[in-house]
Design goal:
alpha+beta; Beta-Lactamase; Heat Shock Protein 90; 5-stranded mixed beta sheet; 3-stranded antiparallel beta sheet; 7 helices; globular
Length: about 300
């Protein structure tokens, strides 16, 4: 095993042998170094720990697959995405600035037609900038350079900002519940990015004018943050793959909805770096609830 992966895998194995943390499930990717040729190869190891009646691990069954070719293709794709995103970032930022100036002028001149057009352009440009930011963050994540600056912040204030921003671009009713006077520890900007992704998905996959709820439940030393919608829901077969990179749900109802399958993947990785995981409860045709935990301050 590559020296840089040993500690990460050691900690994962510790959790695998603790039924309360993993239920014995093991699915990881890591690098190996050839004994004779010294070549670096990527493998995916999957398995299951078997426990006795007292939940003590008895044995482990699993397989190891060589995924070197697949990882090399992923790296090439990441390099391409990073280059294109960097090239698009500067002109889009300039365009966004010009639109803001034009909006200010249209407001002063009371030009209703220009205001409607510019507000639409403003919203679409913001979406494009957010998408490019997600792509760049994925590239940094793959390189191990996505930094987290964790410190206490007011959760209610952050969620209010996220809701206000999305409400401006959406016809949905967004309701914020039970999040007052809660201070949590984390990277405020990155958690805001997670919430924006979850809310944007709720809007995309819910009927126009539908209700979306953001809520918080305090549980001892942590807070559960959730986003609930009454949209199309998710089929059971898609749930295990939902947070995989570039995964798109195959559903006739959402074929016209655009997306690259990166928002949930990136959100999942950000939440993992905060010591938590994103979970989802969903029934097809009835809606979905996404949630994760943050430590209280």
């Amino acid at each position: 095993m590559h020296p840089e992966d040993r500690e990460r895998i050691r900690l994962i194995i510790e959790d695998v042998l603790d039924k309360s943390k993993s239920d014995g499930n093991y699915d990881v990717e890591y690098r190996t170094v050839g004994v004779e040729d010294k070549k670096i190869r990527w493998v995916r190891a999957m398995g299951k720990a078997i426990f006795d009646d007292e939940n003590k691990p008895m044995r482990f069954i699993g397989t190891v697959l060589d995924i070197t070719a697949q990882k090399q293709e992923e790296f090439r794709k990441n390099d391409f995405v990073a280059i294109v995103s960097h090239e698009l970032k500067t002109p889009l930022t300039s365009m966004y600035g010009y639109i803001q100036i034009m909006l200010q002028n249209a407001n002063e001149s009371k030009d209703a037609l220009s205001l409607r057009a510019l507000n639409s352009m403003h919203g679409q440009t913001k979406k494009m900038i957010a998408l490019i930011k997600d792509f760049l963050d994925i590239a940094r994540l793959e390189e191990g350079k996505l930094q987290m600056i964790k410190k206490p912040f007011d959760l209610h204030l952050l969620l209010t900002d996220v809701c206000s921003e999305l409400a401006f671009l959406s016809s949905h009713a967004i309701e914020l519940q039970d999040c007052v006077e809660l201070t949590v520890i984390g990277d405020r900007e990155k958690i805001g990015q997670v919430m924006s992704n979850l809310l944007s998905n709720a809007v995309k996959y819910s009927p126009k004018g539908g209700k979306i709820i953001i809520g918080c439940d305090k549980e001892e030393k942590q807070v559960r943050v959730y986003v609930k919608d009454k949209g199309v829901g998710i089929h059971a077969k898609d749930l295990p793959h939902l947070f995989e990179r570039f995964y798109r749900v195959d559903n006739e109802q959402i074929q016209t909805i655009t997306g690259f399958g990166i928002g949930l993947y990136l959100s999942s990785e950000i939440v993992k770096s905060h010591g938590s995981t994103i979970s989802v409860e969903s029934i097809e045709g009835q809606g979905s609830t996404f949630y994760f935990y943050l430590p209280c301050y």
